[in-house]
Amino acid sequence: MGRGIVVDYGGEVSSFGLTKVEREKLYGRRKKVVVDENGQDCSQAILTRDGTALLPAGCTASLYLNDAFEVCERGDLQAVGLDGAPLPEVESTLGVPTQLDGPIEASRLLDHIAKSVYELDPEELGQTLRELLEKGDIFETRFNYRKGYDDSPAFILQNEEGIFAIVGEPTEFEYLRNENATANEAEDEDEDPFDDDLDFSF
Amino acid sequence: MATRQIRISDEKKRDAHVNIEAPRRKERVSFVNSNGQAVKSDRLIKMTDEQTYEALLNKFEDDTRLAEALMDSDPEIPFDKAGRRVGWSDRVWIRQDGSVLFCARNLLVKYNPDGEEIERGDFIDVEATVSADGNPIPWSGRLFAPEDVVRKYVIGRVVRLRHVNGLTYDFLYQMAKELSDQNKLLLVRAMADSDDGKKKPAPLIFQTNGSPYNGFLEGRVDGDSYLLRLHLSNLELKRVTT
């Protein structure tokens, strides 16, 4: 079993080799290039604000520092979540059978943006999954390319070009209401400030 | 949440200014050291342009003399600068000999999918096609099933359309309801002014020299609340290997 995507759908294990799909591989790319007066390509560098140091590529280093400006080795770092609690490491899902759920609605996929896309080359494809993918069904699994602290949902689907996995990032937009109407409703509950507006006796 | 304003038209060709919002990116992971103290990644100076191999070779004339200098002293370390935070700084362009460029010429270089350069010419700014002051985004009338869109295009970005007052709430709510009732996504393209003075459909570009996108407008409603999202794609779901 290779280091590709492996999924378990109802007890049937399917495995796929994967190739990343990127814009430049399909359409090529455009790049803005800066040249000097002789047409020679130039490169970017950093100039410190005091003007005392010009730093071409490779002249800086990224380090982890605490508030006391003490360097911390990467191996000594512990990842924590928003609540400060240590986060367990999440192993890579490559080569590991991962549960495949579905079929799911297309709207579930629309709740995510694509972080990365892979073209899948079936090495072993279960009969049930094959038929459902050909029918146009969409499936969801979890994906983590390399060991880290967070895995992502991945959606597997097929079109006339082949089978693909779309690794997603949730967008989590909330529905919107008319805030003005809400404010008016709140005012309605209070005493009407113009209650005696029609008093002409002054 | 970053907000900006655009103009958009509905099915009845009525247009309005509404806001668009990008999703908030969540920082889920931070790091602490072995004492539980928060740490942050920072960029420090290792050396400057005077300590690069080329600069040192130029100073000591050949590799043998440079090697001797490295053994005798530390010419590769700027002791007055090494270890300083880079901090506030400016990006500059430098020539291949390391000198700073004060007058830059911008070129646009095009590469084919194999990475070969196929064209090189002056870089010309491409103006945004979507803005609060420009042409409204028209209601194209071209509707697609959500299943067809997600199987054909990669959605790389998304923005939410938000009303700015009670009238635009009605305006956007009706658009969302229309799309929700039909369970369809609307193909969205901008209208750009062309050289012959006519308006022509064009990709959605949200800022000068920004990436061009095709858009798919999706609407959902729940009681008196709505969600109107513009899904943006600049990539088709195609095989890269043949």
Structural commentary:
The complex is a heterodimer of chains A (202) and B (242). By secondary structure, chain A is mainly β. Chain A has helices spanning 23-27, 106-110, 127-135, 179-189, and strands at residues 5-9, 12-20, 29-35, 43-48, 54-55, 60-65, 71-72, 78-80, 97-99, 101-104, 112-124, 138-143, 152-159, 162-170. An eight-stranded mixed sheet of chain A has the order 9-1-2-11-14-13-12-10. Chain A is extended. The relative contact order of chain A is 0.19. The mean pLDDT of chain A is 89. By secondary structure, chain B is of the alpha+beta class. Chain B has two domains: 4-24 and 126-236, Ku70, Chain: A, Domain 2; 46-84, no CATH class. In chain B, 17% of the residues lie in helices and 36% in strands. Chain B contains four helices and 16 strands. Chain B has helices at residues 53-60, 63-72, 146-152, 166-182; strands at 3-9, 15-21, 30-32, 38-45, 89-94, 105-111, 117-122, 143-144, 153-154, 157-162, 185-188, 190-193, 199-202, 214-222, 225-233, 235-236. In chain B, the strands form five sheets. A seven-stranded antiparallel sheet of chain B has the order 1-2-10-15-14-11-8. A two-stranded antiparallel ribbon of chain B has the order 3-4. A two-stranded antiparallel ribbon of chain B has the order 6-7. Chain B is elongated and about 80 Å long. The interface between A and B is large, with 86 and 96 residues. Chain A: Residues 179-202 are annotated as: Disordered.
